[in-house]
Specification:
Number of domains: 3
Largest sheet: 7 strands, mixed
Number of helices: 19
Main location: cytoplasm
CATH topology of the largest domain: FAD/NAD(P)-binding domain
Family: Belongs to the protoporphyrinogen/coproporphyrinogen oxidase family. Coproporphyrinogen III oxidase subfamily.
Radius of gyration: 24 Å
Cofactor: FAD
Protein name: Coproporphyrinogen III oxidase
Pfam families: Amino_oxidase
Structural class: alpha/beta
Strand order of the largest sheet: 7-6-15-16-17-14-18
Shape: globular
Bound molecules: flavin-adenine dinucleotide
Oligomer: single chain
Length: about 500
Amino acid sequence: MTTSHAVVVGGGIAGLAAARTLARDGVRVTVLEGSPRIGGKLHVSEIAGVPVDEGAESMLARRPEGLDLVRGLGRAADLVNPGTASSAILSRGALRRLPSGQVMGVPSDLRALAAAGVLSPAGLARVPLDLVLPETPRGGDVSVAAYIGARVGREVVDRLVEPLLGGVYAGRAELLSFEATLPAVAAAARGQRSLISAVQGIRKAAPADAGPVFATLPDGLGTLPHLVAADITAAGGTVRTGATVRELRRREDGWRLTVGPTRDPEYLDADAVVVAVPAAPASRLLEPDVPAAARELAAIEYASMAIVTLAYRTTAFPRLPKGSGYLVPAVESDPGRGGRGVKAVTFSSVKWPHLRDRDPGVIAVRCSIGRLGEERTLQRPDEELAASAMAELAATCGVTELPVESRVTRWGGGLPQYNVGHADRVARVRAAVAGTPGLAVAGAAYDGLGIPACIASARAAATRVLDHLRSREGVEHGRSGGQAEGTRTQ
Ligand SMILES: Cc1cc2nc3c(=O)[nH]c(=O)nc-3n(C[C@H](O)[C@H](O)[C@H](O)COP(=O)(O)OP(=O)(O)OC[C@H]3O[C@@H](n4cnc5c(N)ncnc54)[C@H](O)[C@@H]3O)c2cc1C
């Protein structure tokens, strides 16, 4: 396979994971990353001397792909888990523990739900109606709010499900797809009239001790892309930054990529291409040769958000937080309703004890601001966003001292929205791409935006490319009487 050249467009975790698989299989691979740094949504930097992620900070340890990648890089021993699994929700004016027995906010234990105090008495009284209501018809896909609201009431949606989903998508429950964002719950609910019974089934089937839910790396998850890139290079691949792909065109025997500025373009030829960029640039690149996929990709909406990281002296906290953080439902955080706009707070130095060990005198806190439709909140200058985050900590933790350092990271259009119909849309994209030899797509826009899901999509894309190259080389071997022909590259 050494004669084949594959280009991966996008140096986020999906592109890098795809490139690593290809490089390790002997393909000559070039990763083209448009920005000056690799990693995409994975990026870490120091604040007050402590490495705190600016984007993704943990990966699900209940799926194998992320951990497998780290193990494959020989870094299994480095993986660290959260020091606490407990988190809270700011509801009805107070911080309350997430009720036990819930799955992404959908309750299964009514006593635990009542004890948590997250819902009002009226909201709580509505929940058990699920046990007696007739089946909620669900022909095709429906929104999270429509289905869950119909079963257990709107308050469960507003005060539990949406904030938990908001942590992933920064989206709205009225728009998000039940099937695509809560696949396990949606599948269980198919066979049951009652949603509560369906979630009880999921809880029963879960192993009693499945181990920690999340994992990260000691210097931040933002170090993972660099480890992967080093592995690609070691396997003979090339990772380039500042190399924006502006055009992708199919040629008789492969692909031609136009890279760099319009005035001084560079042309790169490839036998196969993996497009691992967000939906909007993917749509632009696929437009000339796969217009059906491009149209579908153009319709995927993205939410913007910002992460405000504050580093405080430990002594600034009258009492050190015990849990990993808390979520703020839109009904509580909306600035129009008197909220401060902060939708989630992570006490990074509590969640990750290794950060505390780095400097016991510093507590790093990450505050997420902004969800779909809250663009005006994000149009405020950095100082105002930081002030909102400080006001949040003053109100909930009594922190009145100024932080020793603050940092605002904006993620414009950072999170794809898996809206109603998303799975069908992705199936249409894949069908169009499947009819285009030597092309594969990967990344957060498709089958899950968590890191393990992105890695899974990368592996699938790499497998598709390898199959194509193998069948192509087989043909070329046949043509040249058993001698592989050199490919034209660059
Ligand atoms: C703030 C934030 C926090 C998150 N937290 C978590 C978390 O804790 N755990 C978790 O599992 N997930 C988390 N996620 C989601 C997860 O990080 C992302 O879904 C995932 O990293 C996306 O990877 P990707 O490779 O698909 O895309 P990206 O990371 O977006 O990478 C795509 C890359 O393509 C490049 N690119 C775009 N256009 C071009 C072009 N034309 N030519 C060349 N390059 C191009 C971009 O510059 C970018 O580097 C978070 C996301 C955000 C925004």
